[in-house]
Design brief:
This protein is an alpha+beta fold. It is 33% helix and 26% strand. A four-stranded mixed sheet has the order 5-4-6-7, sandwiched between helices. Strands 2-1-3 form a three-stranded antiparallel sheet, with helices on one face.
Length: 140
């Protein structure tokens, strides 16, 4: 019995954390993303996987977002990435001491905090992220 409980616990911890992001279209045809759809809106849930355990540092060109599950700007960043189809690795700084240490190692003081290559960005705005990605994405 203890073995079964231990296996179930291990399996549940291995599941990725999913953010609650919704997609809906307003009466003018504009598509919106957010963590709370308006009342009565027909929505589709967008699945966003988050890394909840410490992983080795990814390749230098991978976009990494240090975040928390409750942060409003982190939710906006997740919705932005989902809308744009941008691949990234999320590190929940509250999920483990190792994640917290990695965050602090890179100079993180608040979330969201983004790293791509040698560049860093604190906070989130669409315009700021557009500039950040344009500056860090290799040009052909």
């Amino acid at each position: 019995m203890k073995t079964v409980v231990a296996l179930l616990l291990a399996a549940s911890l291995a599941l990725p954390a999913g953010a609650q992001i919704y997609k809906w279209t307003d009466s003018t045809g504009k598509v919106h993303y957010g963590d709370k759809p308006p009342a009565g809106a027909k929505t589709d849930q967008v699945k966003v996987d988050a890394v909840t355990s410490h992983e080795p540092r990814a390749e230098s060109t991978q976009l990494i977002m240090y975040a928390t599950s409750w942060c409003g700007y982190c939710k906006k960043a997740r919705a932005y990435f989902a809308a744009k189809g941008i691949s990234y690795r999320e590190v929940d700084i509250e999920a483990s001491p190792a994640n917290q240490a990695e965050f602090k190692q890179f100079g993180g003081k608040g979330v969201p905090f983004f790293i791509q290559g040698e560049r860093r960005m604190r906070g989130f705005s669409e315009g700021g992220m557009n500039k950040f990605l344009a500056a860090t994405t290799p040009q052909p």
